[in-house]
Amino acid sequence: MSRLPILQAGQSYTFSKYFDLPYAPGDILSELGCTYQRSMLELPLYRGELNYLDFLQRYLQRNILRVNPISETAKREVLIAPILLEVCGQTENQLNIEYPINVNELLKGNLDYYITSSQNLLVIEAKQSDLSRGFTQLAVELIALDQWVNSDNSMLYGAVTNGEDWRFGIFYRQERLVIQDIKLYRVPEGLEELLRVLVGILTS
Q1: What's the helix, strand, coil split of the chain in %, to 5?
Q2: For 151-158, which contacts have Cβ atoms below 8 Å and span 24 or more sequence positions?
Q3: What SS3 class is residue 90?
Q4: Could you give the CA distance from residue 17 to residue 47 in angstroms, rounded to a whole number?
Q5: What average pLDDT does this structure show over 118-140?
Q6: pLDDT tens digits along 132-162
Q7: At what angle do helices 81-91 and 191-203 cross, to 10 degrees?
Q8: Which of 169, 137, 140, 138 is nearest to 155 (CA)?
Q9: What CA–CA distance (Å, rounded) separates 37 from 35?
C-alpha cells in the first residue's frame, strides 16, 4: 500500500528538523533508502582498566546533585561532555563538538559530538527528552555520515542521550540498515558498563 511522501520535494531538512517530524522512524528512514529495526545489540566491550572510573562517578553524582539539568545545554555540559572527554583521553582521540555536515538538502546540520578513531566512528546526539524521536535524528545523522566520510568501516555507531539515559544504534552501511538497541544504559549507576561500550567501540 502506497502513501504520500513525508519529505517534501524542494524543502530543506536539517538534522534537528527530523526530531520534530511526528512519524515512525521506519517511515522516515525508508524515504532515505534505509530500513529500521529494533533489537538487542551486542556492542564491543573494553575489558581493560578504567582508572578514571571512581573519579568520574563522584564527579557526575556531584553534578547531578548540584546542577538542575533542565536544559539540553546544561545536560551536555555537566553530564555528557565529562564522560566523552574521559573516553577520548583514554583512547587518545579528538572530541569534535557541533561538527558540521552538508551532504544535500535532506542531509545537513551539526553533529552534537563526533569522535573518530582508527577503528570506528562514533556520533553522540544530546537530547533534553524523548529518546525515541532523538534516535530518529541520530539515525539520519548516521546516514549522512555514511556519505560524508570515506572509510572502510562497515558499521557506523551512534548513541542518543539525555545525559542520564543512553541508547545506542548501528548503521550497517552495505545493507543500509539502522538497528536501534532496545537496551538503555543509565548514568550514574551504569556508568562503568557505558564507559566500557564507548571505549570498546573506539578501540575494537
Answers
A1: 40, 25, 35
A2: 151/121, 153/120, 153/121, 155/120, 156/120, 156/121, 156/123, 157/43, 157/120, 157/121, 157/122, 157/123, 157/201, 158/122, 158/123, 158/124, 158/125
A3: helix
A4: 38
A5: 91
A6: 999 999 999 999 999 999 888 999 999 999 9
A7: 40
A8: 169
A9: 7
CA 49 to chain centre: 24
**CB-based contact 197:45 (threshold 8 Å):** yes
For residue 188, whether the previous peptide bond is cis, meaning omega lies within 30 degrees of 0, is yes
pTM above 0.90, yes or no: yes
Measured between alpha carbons, how far is 110 from 147 in angstroms, rounded to an integer?
15
> Both ends of the chain: CA-CA distance in Å?
42
Cβ contacts of residue 46 below 8 Å, gap of 6+? 195, 196, 197, 199, 200, 203
Which secondary structure element, helix H or strand E, spans residue 201, and what is its range? helix 191-203
How do strand 155-161 and strand 165-172 relate by DSSP bridges? antiparallel
Which tens digits make up the pLDDT trace of 166-182?
A: 999 999 999 999 999 99
* Distance between CA atoms of residues 128 and 137, nearest Å: 13
pLDDT in tens, 12-54: 999 999 999 999 999 999 999 999 999 999 999 999 999 999 9
Rg (CA), the chain: 17
